[in-house]
Amino acid sequence: MIKAQVFRQYDIRGIVGEELNEESYYLIGKGFGSYLRRKGLSTIALGGDARLTTPDLKAAFVKGALETGCDVTDIGIVATPVLYFSIWKLKMDGGAMITASHNPSQYNGCKLNLGLGSVYAEELQKVLRIIQAEDFVTGEGHYSKDDTINDAYIEYIIQNIHLERPVKVIVDGGNGMGGPYLPEILLRLGCEVIEMYCDPDGNFPNHHPDPTVEKNMTDLSRAVVAAEYELGIGLDGDADRIGVVDEKGKMLFGDQILNILARDYLKKNPGKTVIADVKCSKNLFDDIRKHGGVPMMYKTGHANIKMKMKEIGVEFAGEMSGHVFMADRYLGFDDAIYAGCRMIEIVSQTDAPVSTYLADQPKMYNTPELHIKCADERKFDVVAKVCAEFKAEGYDVNDIDGARITFSDGWGLVRASNTTPVLVTRYEAESEARMNEIRELIEGKIDKYI
Question: pLDDT digit string (tens) for 372-408?
């Protein structure tokens, strides 16, 4: 059968050989195909990343999906946003991307789509239950390949981005799937581009493909300073998350990237709502308001945010984790390649260095995202107890996703990760000493229940 724990909140993910194998993907194909067929749908766009296990797992998925009567269009080895683009371009009912995103090389996984929306949470559990019950639809589907999507995707973005001048940029592809796309697009737009680790390699030989972690951006930071370039852009394993370093080699946090993009968006779209997740800085929410927008704090998770955007008609959103969602001039899904191009577009509009873009903001001291180990079966209960205790003591608590406790001079967050057995925390305040006080207060309560 299949191990239920690989069906996580937003996708399917596990260690190949231990938690996932070809039989698993055959069953996932049958389960997802049956899920679609029962909705009266039958067409699937299929892509995969550059992991060494992807080709065999893809083939197993195809076999399962075809046996349900679904037609599968295979677009090859691509970035996740290119798979999303193909669903729109080819007018497909659903999509499947064989990827483990930024996880290490021994992992693989699968992201499932219903239209441009993610199949996640309870809907993903429905696919699991179909598999567990062996409640499959049967039929004979048709398999085909489409080799036109990469070119169509690149052309679509080039037509969409307008640079005022050439920009000097270094791209670190992390040996993931963004390397074949972003440098080509920027070169064709007239930029001066240095490529780093842009050849896809499922072994990820140079560094872990997660551009939101500072140590993974060290090579890029050094290269930008040495070359005297304007900025560096890092991409994660499947190119749906972005990282940025400025001309001094300083890494921008995800909420700072969002802040720069949001200011540009609000210039042309005053009064619009911008969504950001609970891990983002107070500066971001204040700055959105200051620049004529309406900030909305929402749950972490790319699937949650895409759903909320569609539900209330929002065009721009993002997360601390580097997911950026743009329905303004684009298609609304998280695409680090496109977000990188929008960042370059902003840089091209001024000669001011990137390090000065947010220099007018109040100085805040903050931690990156921190993790505390906590068993999957206990983590949500621990957060609920911490949240209840702060509320009982009269603190200002936002509980939309865990507990974000706001003080007059800072805030702290504790939430349960939806993908790993950890509690996620983050702290921010007007001074380093106060930040540490807030951290001690919140971690003291966590320690009582963990």
Answer: 999 989 999 999 999 999 999 999 999 999 999 999 9
407-411: long-range contacts, CB 8 A cutoff, minimum separation 24: 407/438, 409/434, 410/282, 410/364, 410/434, 410/435, 410/438, 411/282, 411/438
Superfamily of domain 4-147: Alpha-D-Glucose-1,6-Bisphosphate, subunit A, domain 3 (3.40.120.10)
What does CATH list as the number for 167-356? Answer: 3.40.120.10
Spell 70-80 as b/e; 16+ CB within 10 A means b. bbbbbbbbbbb
Q: CA–CA separation, 430 vs 282, rounded Å?
A: 11
Please give the single-letter amino acid code of residue 38: R
Set 24, 34, 101, 118: catalytic member: 101
What pTM was estimated for this model as a whole? 0.96
* Per-residue pLDDT tens over the stretch 418-437: 888 999 999 999 999 999 99
Q: Is 101 noted as a catalytic residue in this protein?
A: yes
The arrangement of secondary structure in 365-449, i.e. its CATH architecture, is 2-Layer Sandwich (3.30)
Under DSSP, the state recorded for 214 is G
Backbone angles phi, psi at 365, to 5 degrees: -105, 125
* Distance (Å, whole) CA 64 – CA 34: 10
- Show me where the domains of the chain are located: 4-147, 167-356, 365-449
